[in-house]
Amino acid sequence: MDRLIYLYGLIPRKEEGQQPLPPLKGFDGTDNLYTIPIGDITAVVCQLDPEKYSEESIKERVNDDMEWLQEKAFHHHETVMALSKIFTVIPLKFCTLYKNPDSLKRAVQSNRSNMLYTFDLIAGHEEWNLKMYCNDQLLKKQVSGSNPVIEAKREEISQLSKGKQFFEKKKLDKLIESQLEEEKNKISENIHLHLKELARKGDVKKAWSAAATARKEDMAWNGVYLVEKSKVERFLEQIQQYEKELRENGWQLEASGPWPAYHFSSFS
Amino acid sequence: MQPVNQSNGKINLDPENAEHGLAQLVLTVIELLRQIVERHAIRRVEGGTLTDEQIENLGEALMNLEEKMEELKELFGLNDEDLNINLGPLGNLL
To answer: Name one GO biological process term (chain A) (predicted).
Structure first.
């Protein structure tokens, strides 16, 4: 039975010629990583015992063995990070396995043009992520305190009888909520559009829930950008500038990177 | 009296604090009902079928209910987040 092939990433073959692969330990901690050339693309892989790493046994461990998952996911990430510091890498998802070198070669060959396009796109660029958080209470104060429509409505309500005031206040609360959402979107979108201009590409991802981030504030924006290396400094300075301007109004901007180009490359 | 202050949306039923856990649970249910009644009332008012007097009475009653709820929350050391339950994929209860 062939040994399984664990694929970490794909790099342009010409880059491998310029710089050799550093010694990196494979998924099971014993063998080193090695490369398989497939035309003008090079796959960075390691071998695994098919009995120990069958599809079922991996699924089982991913679902039940948190410690194992954490250790291996960390290994995968660290390895791809190390590669992306040296090469232009199309990073693969955690636990991408092939039955043998031939099945890997077939998969790479059938996606060749897509990958060459991706190499062109990501070469000399870094992937950066920006998460924006907003303290709704602070921004709400700002929104409801400086809006003449809301001020007028408040004045109008104070003239009403007690019972009616209750309903009108509820309506006003709703109005403030919707204004708040609008304001949040407007600010986030403006920042995103500007950052997108500084980047080669920019996309919006789904904002995470407060449960996933373990933060009190909801995530207002989750953006990902492909930035030319020489422009990264300027890109990050711009984010700092926004953070400074908006901090008082309850905003927090969190940039992270450089990441392997998980978002801007796809191998399928 | 130790305030029950949890932001993870779980009801605390450990024996030491059983009384508090129970108060939290009961208040959560009451708050859910109160909000349902309130939303229904708002729909009726917006529907335009109620007289001025009826609107006035309903508004005052709901306002008193809201105030009472605030008092109870204070009494048991609970805040709005404590009266919410995370229903997983369904989102929050309130």
So the answer is: gas vesicle organization
